[in-house]
Amino acid sequence: MTGHLHVVEKNLSPGATxxxxxxxxxxxxxxxxxxxxxxxxxxxxxxVHDGEFVAVLGPSGAxxxxxxxxxxxxLAPDNGGVWIDREDIATLRDRSRRRLAVVFQQFNLVSRLSxxxxxxxxxxxxxxxxxxxxxCFTRADxxxxxxCLDRVGLLAQAGxxxxxxxxxxxxxxxxxxxxxxQPSLIVADxxxxxxxxxxxxxxxxxxxxxxxxxxxxxxxxxxQVHFARAYADRIIGLSHGRIVIDGPSSxxxxxxxxxxxxxxDSAEPESVEPTT
Length: 276
Ligand SMILES: Nc1ncnc2c1ncn2[C@@H]1O[C@H](COP(=O)(O)OP(=O)(O)OP(=O)(O)O)[C@@H](O)[C@H]1O
Ligand SMILES: [Mg+2]
Prior knowledge:
The protein has helices spanning 64-71, 94-97, 115-120, 129-133, 139-151, 167-180, 197-214, 225-231, 254-261, and strands at 6-7, 24-35, 38-49, 53-57, 79-84, 87-88, 100-103, 185-189, 217-221, 234-239, 242-248. By secondary structure, it is an alpha/beta fold. It folds into two domains: 22-99 and 183-261, 3-Layer(aba) Sandwich (Rossmann fold); 111-182, no CATH class. The strands form two sheets. Strands 1-11-10-4-9-8-7 form a seven-stranded mixed sheet, sandwiched between helices. It has a four-stranded antiparallel sheet with strand order 3-2-5-6, with helices on one face. A hairpin with a 2-residue loop joins β2 (24-35) and β3 (38-49). The longest helix has 18 residues, at 197-214. It is globular and about 55 Å long. Residues 35-36, 38, 40, 58, 60-66 line the site of adenosine-5'-triphosphate.
């Protein structure tokens, strides 16, 4: 990581803080979305490269979910765009969409299906529709799904119904499903918000491992600054819909924390060790 944390005063030139060796997995450019005259996000630009794990921080209402909904194509921005592997998300066809995997706060598993069948859903973008409808997957797809479950430590639970798994296990199945998609990019809006600290740390460790091992770009919003500092390579700070901080997580210091969340005398939820 060659960049230095910088406070963004004006527009961020995409990827300005990042080493440029890797392929650009995600480009977000001058993104804006307004609801009823209120700008939820404004002029948001950044790049994510392969193997990079980016945490998005910011107070409630800063625009994180709006940004994530635009990044996944759920919401059409008023201005700007999103490119995955240099393809415009607005025009991604079904088979290209599999390059984008989404992990949700509430896991979004099919509760009555087994862990394995949920992971196989990650292969739906690769099989003809009729096969998917009949859940008629190839042996290779099944082996891949089992491998993905193994990677998240849940091979023994392959046959267990999703709704009987713990929250931490369900999120691991969701990550295995994302892995089975063999994506270029994983985006996750608050993936650990429903988990206890240990399970949350386990999930973030898995995501970091996937970025490292598979060269996947990962963008993940969090409310826990200490998690972002421990697991992410880079922190993007959103405030009032704009990027105000973008840089290596190791350089996210007390001043950055206060800039992002404001200064509080007694009720500060977290503090940051001064960097030396
Ligand atoms: N569909 C919508 N209609 C109207 N306003 C919306 C809509 N979605 C978001 N907003 C507004 O946009 C702003 C940003 O909301 P957003 O959900 O993106 O924030 P957030 O950073 O994800 O917050 P949190 O940390 O609480 O999840 C808020 O003021 C919110 O009320
Ligand atoms: Mg949100």
